[in-house]
Specification:
binds magnesium ion, 369 residues, ten-stranded mixed β-sheet, 15 strands, 33% helix, binds adenosine-5'-diphosphate, alpha/beta, three-stranded antiparallel β-sheet
Amino acid sequence: MPKRGNIQVAVRLRPTAAFSEALSVTDAGVTVNLGHSKSDSSSFLDNQQKVYTFNFDRVMKDAPQQDVYESCARPTVESVVSGFNGTVFCYGQTGAGKTYTMTGDTSMSYLQRGVVPRAIIDLFRLLNERPGTIATVRVSYLEIYNEQLYDLLSPNEMTGHLQIQDDSSGNTVVRGLTMPVCATEEECMHYLFQGDTTRVIAEHQMNNASSRSHCIFTIHVEQRHNTSVAEKVVMSKLHLVDLAGSERVTKTKSDGKILQEANYINKSLTFLEQVVVALSTKNRDHIPYRQSKLTNVLRDSLGGNSKTSMIANIHGETAHLDETVSTLRFAERVMCVNNHAVVNESMDPVMMVKKLEREVRELKQELAM
Ligand code: ADP
Ligand code: MG
């Protein structure tokens, strides 16, 4: 295995009454003993190694939502307030707990809330604690389904107008995406719920599509000093990502539509893997980001300018051991990826224009004298 990178990787086990005897976990490791298992589900692993041991930054079994937030997301939120880009993403098979981890149950008690609502609350608290700084917060909510981009905050817009581009600093931006300003955490929550509702409605219409689409909730932060002469602006963003189920969708029993869909999903996950493998090996000359919308949008998050944390969700029942091994393998690969995060400080375009206007005025006055 290549050298350790700097992406933080945690594993979270979904609670289950039928935890497989083949799995054993410690605070930072998971062992899967397929020799132990009476399951014959492990077809693709036949004639291969039977005991797999994986090490991570942490392994969370029976962890409450608050603990998961504290250990996997809070440091990233703090970095975003300090001006770095941040990403928290969940990966794992359908039903393993990705959406529970990211969104949680927002209708019930506060205790069930996931990473996203907690990050919103923390972010506003931390920004309000910075005297002398004025912050502008915007949000966007993007869904990628069948290699198409959808704006979850503007569901009635025609699709096809969203485009992935690089901005002048080389950061990836999605042009055309609605990005409303949020003055308060309540407004931010409102947009989160609005986007989630759109997602749920679309899911019903598209036959449980949410497990096959990637959702990226992004909080964009601009910070300026509270003085009229400040010329610098610090711009950072926090991507909170709920990926499509990592299981490969079978193509055999499907009708035409599902077949096409299966191709897209399998491809986007394969391209994600290819990017991670390319990044974790020595020769980083060509990273195939442009092969899919997902890797293109997440270019900063993987191998780029972002402090990134991954949560690998696993469902520890015997029937899911193959998927568990494949999720853990991917997670181990991600640990080898190195990011290069920097504080995103630049000249404030608004102040630059004001400064230039002032200079022009002064020059005109000089000429008139
Ligand atoms: P995914 O998004 O990965 O497909 P979900 O988050 O929808 O999976 O989880 C599947 C089911 O398991 C949901 O009913 C969810 O509430 C439940 N669940 C998942 N993880 C946990 C957990 N840590 N504690 C309690 N319930 C959970
Ligand atoms: Mg889900």
